[in-house]
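With this grant's support, we have settled on a layout for protein records. A representative record follows, to show the layout.
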Amino acid sequence: MLRWCIFASALALACSTPLFAQSGGVGGVVRDGHGVAVPVTVVEALGPTRATVETDSLGRYRIAPLAPGDYVVRATRLGYDAAELRVHVQADRLATADFTLAEQALAVEGVRVEVSRERQRFEGTAGTTARQLTGEEMRSLPGLAEPDIVRAVDLLPGVVTTSDFSSAFNVRGGSADENLILLDGFPIYNPFHLGGLFSVFNGDMVRQAELLEGGFPPRYGNRVSSVLRVDSDPGGAGFEGSAGISALAARLALGQDLSPGAASRLGLRSGRGRVSFRRSYVDAVLKPVVDFPYHLQDAQGYFEGWTRGGGQWVVTAYTGDDVLDFGHATASFPLRLRWAWGNDVVGARYTGSWGRGRVLELQGGYSGFGTSLRFPDFGDTRFDSRIGQLNLQADAAADVGGGTHLELGGEANHFAYDDRLDAGGAEFARYRDDGWLVGAYAQAHQRSGAWLVEGGLRGDAWSPRSGGTFAYLSPRVGVKRFIAGGQGALKLAAGRYTQVLHSVRDEQLPLGLDIWVMAGQRAPAVISDQVQGGVEALTGQGWRASLEGYWRDFRGVVANNYAEDPNDPSDDFLRGRGRSYGVDFLLKREVGPVNGWISASWLRATRTFPDYLAPAGSGAEVSYAPLFDRRIDLDLVLRYPLPGGIEGGLHWSYGSGLPYTSVFGAYSFYDYELLSPRVRPRTTDGDPVTAILLGPRNGARYPPYHRLDLSFRKTYTRPWGSITPYLQVLNAYNRKNPLFYFFNYDLDPPTRTGVSMFPFLPTFGADVTF
């Protein structure tokens, strides 16, 4: 398949010179009266061809291809007067239509401008499977105590979560560490609090999220499963604030425009900044009942500035810490310990245009994650794990005529990790490495009539300090054929994806933290070849439907080797392979008083590793279904109005049972005594020693999972702002979904007991704006 992908990608790149000279287009920038870009503006071209797009974060738009002729180009956005321009589109040319919109207070009730973003994605990408969620959708969905964008992503087709207690997710048969998670374009390694119970993203700061489930372009490297982009919300004009209190935490967000003088001193036309703070109080609430000294705290900052030439500066930063501090011994927990972990992200990006249809983007930043475990009574015992990434990146895009759009870019990343375990005053284990990952890519995007073709090529070179230089070539190609008058499309995409990072956290555990290692002497790189195809439709009435099938192959996946030689650091991990294939369906309504979506997924995933229980050198392997092999996954999500101005939210989910390793029985150990000779049962303190006879690995299935969640919100408007109390009800009919089983063979007859996930759990809170 790689040869065919390279051939198709090279062919598409060769088409960066116009192959189709019978079409043109129109493009430009939409600004307000102050010269500031107006994003999310709907721009329509009305003429021989009719098309609609939406402006990006810089207020830019591009509508192509268009049949030659005279057009009326209209720009509309809620809060501004509509504007129209007349242009003449010539073949093989991009006409210019720049807009300046006047602000207008609109007294229109019940009007929602939707669909345009989905329409732009539908018409502008060939092979990528993209799912968008807005901050408004996230806040209206039932969730655990407070809005969480990652919990909302879990409800999309092709996404599997294995536990109520973790918001970590798996996409189309990939491991959780194979998802690239970006905050404003910068990676974040462990985006979860409380071991995965909820994410680090403060709902007040989220503008939107986009999950690229497959076929993502060569701009994105070093992950093989999916890309989740979370974009921060700069807020509205002037000073504004928002706050919230939930069963888990209290939070505050403040935003303010730069004064004209401050903006001028920074060389900007205008600017706006926003900061947020959050702190949990689980420790304080539970203190009268039980001593649980855990707390989280995080802070986030976001700045957006506009230059006089229309360029955009973005500065983003995040820091967060989780602390579990049993600093004093108690009867129930006699061991003193302090366990802390957290993320740090900081980055800056500049996006500007030079000439018509040409964009340059430069960014640089740092991301790191670390965890540390200390025992105050044993100062010579500790555990530390840290990983850091320095990122420098440049991307350029240009329209080269004939309906062709070309993108080029490159990046340099320095990675470093350090895992250390000290015990008894000695360094028991120490693993560390660092290296440079350098990559470059090119992609061509060609639209002609009913056909849309994308082809790209990415090359990466990985050079770890531990030795060796490794090169990876990743071709990617996508084709889309529009049907039904442009309301539907057939699509096909194929590509190769690579990754030089691994998390060695055991995904079988319901809670846990990622411990990262890099490809080199201890672990291989992951290489995944993927094919996907299907049909999608997008109507003007706000309905969207898609049906896609996919196939993925994974080489270089790793698992912990429980038969490792402590003196051989090269055998810490087993090197294996995996495969997944399945079908995803989505039906979504985006407008109207009742809206939401229904999704259905079918998945089959396998992993194959050397059998560490087999004799050395035998070459024996074991294949099994990984924990996230949920064959059937259904989600129904609704938002609907209720009497009294209450906004209701509903989520019902069903999932077939996840795999686990069952127990067939137990048997006693016998020792053979050479001097007797005889055999006798082995005992410990007079009790016989028994062993468990396990069935095939992950050969059994838990019962099906299903749960109904409800939410109710009502907003009260006041002269100073608004207050929105809400009630969340998880597991409304108290379904006992098993988390795992315990088998007790000391009893006669043996027993099996289980631990369930969330029971019926109502929580309440309130959001405030001012």
Remarks:
- The radius of gyration is 28 Å.
- The first strand starts at residue 24 and ends at 32.
